[in-house]
Design the sequence.
């Protein structure tokens, strides 16, 4: 069992690393320069000044050096600064991360307790009968629906039609 857990964890880490590398590569394929997008062209910046800014940001180095620097900084918790708000990205993500983890944990708990376990018991008790088939079809259909669409529909149903809660609000558990 522990071999299986270690194996799956390593597969997950390799997959996550590959995905990060793919996204980094796709960002490098976007035409144009990041610096030219950030700098107001009418401000009179010439190519020499743009090259200095690129050198300061490390954008003149090879892609693998840029990736290595970014990945090392990311692992250390330094995600850079937001160009729009001028504060650290980690400070922007911090408050939102707690809300995200709370919602994801609660959704997982509800889905396991109220959907997964009862459907699993039903399918196990009626193996190879119509109830088992219905549970399989329901599960496959639920997994096939995009999460963003399902979330939008649940907000619409429970907030707008049933008026059970105000839409898109979050209250801290301590309040």
Sequence:
């Amino acid at each position: 069992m522990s071999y299986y857990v270690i194996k799956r964890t390593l597969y997950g880490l390799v997959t996550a690393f590959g995905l990060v590398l793919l996204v980094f590569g796709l960002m490098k394929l976007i035409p144009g320069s990041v610096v030219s997008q950030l700098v107001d062209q009418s401000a009179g910046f010439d190519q020499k000044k743009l090259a200095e800014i690129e050198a300061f940001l490390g954008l003149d180095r090879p892609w693998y050096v840029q990736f290595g620097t970014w990945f090392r900084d990311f692992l250390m918790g330094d995600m850079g600064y937001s160009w729009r708000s001028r504060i650290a990205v980690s400070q922007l993500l911090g408050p939102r991360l707690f809300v995200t983890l709370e919602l994801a944990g609660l959704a997982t708990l509800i889905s396991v307790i109220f959907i997964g376990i009862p459907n699993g018991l039903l399918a196990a008790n009626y193996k190879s009968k119509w109830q088992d088939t219905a549970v399989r079809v329901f599960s496959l259909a639920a997994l096939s629906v995009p999460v963003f669409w399902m979330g939008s529909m649940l907000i619409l149903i429970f907030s707008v039609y049933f008026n059970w809660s105000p839409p898109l609000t979050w209250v801290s558990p301590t309040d």
Notes: Residues 58 and 69 are 9 Å apart (CA to CA). Residues 93-161 form one domain.
